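User:
Note these tokens:
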Amino acid sequence: MAEHGGIRTGRHCVFVLHAHLVFVTKFRHRVFTGAYLERMEQIMRDVCTDFECELAEFNGEADHVHLLVNFPPKVALSRLVNSLKGVSSRRMRQEFPELARHYYRANKLWSGSYFAGSVGGAPISVLRQYIEQQNRPV
């Protein structure tokens, strides 16, 4: 895949897709300190690389993290999310045994739910107007 000014190209497509993801700890337990968040960011960058995605931004607080992910159209966002949450939970537990007390029921760090929002480009109203103004073939 090549990139030109933020626009990526594959064999048969040209794209720029970004998603804002938010993961919350189980029961919103306040788990993370700065050192944990730094390691979490690296783990999530590695997972994104495996999926041919880019972790454009990462930040978090004690009970949640925010990710801005640039992803190709062949990636199912739900699969990426499952991998990000699963790998990060497993590796954080292995590398920081003291976190084990925060892993509730079935050794889960993360809540089962997550937020995913599409990001970037023109507002929906502008896109609607653009599409409506296209000439229809007669």
User: Anything to note?
Assistant: The chain has one domain: 18-132.
